[in-house]
């Protein structure tokens, strides 16, 4: 029997309603870019040079920012052929940053893509870039080093999984949307610290397959259940899964969200999963110029961004004492 706990907070925050009737068995829509809106003073674009390449990012600083007080940092990574601006508009993290007082940074991948071991043409490693970007942001904003978080969509979600393997001492918690762990990283990933991971995936995602890729496929992705089990094993979670159906109907013509939480893990870490049954490749609760997708999100009632931020707030790095950056001026 499911007992009320902190898990229910994710459910309540992530959901506004529960039932969604659709005309097909799956929703298979990639969120489209939202036209840029007016740039306010709290928005700006930045650059840094890393690995011999000029890199760019979009940053939102809430109006409550005071350089004397450290703020949390949320890194949000776009999908294939996306941009920092497009994922900002889709995820609406700026609204949450303003409401809850954290800084949101949306990096841009070279040629609108991410590379985990070195881009064939650009010859860069985006994991190293992210590490450099964190250091760069710490120089211009007062960041709470214990509360740096990473999330991303699609290829950006795959990058988020890779960051959990390679930068666990810099990032406190991770959340991938329509992403998974590559088979190569699953073999070589051995973080020395516990990892708090949230995953949100559609079971009928044709781009990031819920049941994984053929092992012969280049950069094959392991299945979503296997990825969840990977992080459970790593964190030595001892509790049985606590789950709740977040939609009352089981009809094949209805989207349904199942939530699973695994706790009793090392160092208060946890693994949390939202499975959108019959859902496809999209950011639940996100904005889009596609009216069909907007209708899906309105009826679904699950807001991935709110659930992710709620999850992040429960976790912080414990491997070193909190510190602030005295050089932050703005």
Give your account of this protein's structure.
The chain has helices spanning 6-14, 84-91, 93-100, 126-140, 155-166, 183-188, 224-235, 291-300, 304-312; strands at residues 20-21, 43-50, 53-60, 71-77, 102-107, 143-153, 173-177, 197-202, 242-245, 254-262, 271-277. A hairpin with an 8-residue loop joins β9 (242-245) and β10 (254-262). The protein starts with 5 loop residues before the first helix and ends in an 18-residue tail after the last helix. The longest helix is centred in the middle third of the chain and has 15 residues, at 126-140. With 330 residues, it is an alpha/beta fold. 46% of the residues are buried. The protein is 27% helix and 22% strand.
End-to-end gap? 50 Å
Radius of gyration: 19 Å
Mean pLDDT over all positions: 84
User: Strand pairing plus helix content: what structural class?
Assistant: alpha/beta
Q: In percent, how much strand structure appears in the residues?
A: 15-25%
- Give the helix tally: 9
Give the biggest sheet. 11 strands, mixed
Extended strand count: 11
Indicate the percent of residues in helices. Answer: 25-40%
Q: From N to C, what is the helix and strand string?
A: HEEEEHHEHEHEHEHEEEHH
What are its keywords?
globular, about 20% strand, alpha/beta, 9 helices, eleven-stranded mixed β-sheet
Mind sketching the topology for me?
Elements: H1 6-14, E1 20-21, E2 43-50, E3 53-60, E4 71-77, H2 84-91, H3 93-100, E5 102-107, H4 126-140, E6 143-153, H5 155-166, E7 173-177, H6 183-188, E8 197-202, H7 224-235, E9 242-245, E10 254-262, E11 271-277, H8 291-300, H9 304-312
Helix pairs in contact: 1-9
């Amino acid at each position: 029997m499911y007992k009320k706990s902190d898990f229910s907070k994710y459910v309540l925050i992530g959901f506004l309603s529960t039932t969604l009737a659709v005309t097909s068995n799956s929703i298979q829509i990639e969120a489209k870019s939202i036209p840029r809106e007016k740039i306010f003073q709290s928005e700006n674009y930045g650059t840094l040079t890393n690995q011999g390449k000029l890199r760019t990012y979009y940053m939102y600083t809430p109006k409550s920012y005071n350089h004397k007080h450290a703020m949390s940092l949320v890194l949000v990574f776009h999908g294939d052929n996306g941009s920092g601006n497009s994922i900002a508009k889709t995820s609406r993290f700026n609204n949450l940053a303003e409401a809850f007082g954290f800084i949101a940074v949306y990096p841009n991948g070279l040629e609108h893509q991410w590379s985990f071991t070195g881009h064939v043409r650009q010859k860069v490693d985006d994991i190293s870039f992210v590490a450099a970007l964190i250091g760069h942001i710490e120089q211009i904003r007062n960041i709470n080093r214990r509360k740096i978080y990473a999330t991303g969509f699609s290829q950006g979600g795959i990058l988020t999984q890779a960051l959990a393997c390679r930068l666990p001492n810099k990032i406190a918690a991770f959340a991938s949307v329509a992403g998974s762990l590559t088979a190569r990283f699953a073999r070589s990933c051995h973080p020395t610290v516990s990892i708090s991971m949230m995953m949100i995936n559609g079971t009928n995602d044709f781009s990031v397959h819920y049941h994984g890729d053929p092992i012969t496929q280049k950069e094959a992705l392991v299945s979503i259940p296997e990825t969840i089990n990977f992080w459970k094993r790593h964190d030595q979670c001892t509790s049985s899964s606590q789950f709740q159906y977040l939609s009352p109907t089981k009809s094949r013509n209805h989207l349904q969200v199942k939530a699973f939480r695994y706790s009793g893990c090392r160092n208060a870490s946890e693994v949390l999963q939202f499975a959108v049954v019959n859902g496809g490749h999209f950011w639940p609760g996100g904005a889009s110029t596609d009216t069909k997708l907007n209708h899906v999100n309105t009826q679904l009632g699950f807001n991935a961004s709110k659930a992710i931020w709620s999850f992040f707030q429960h976790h912080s790095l414990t491997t070193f004492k909190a510190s602030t950056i005295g050089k932050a001026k703005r």
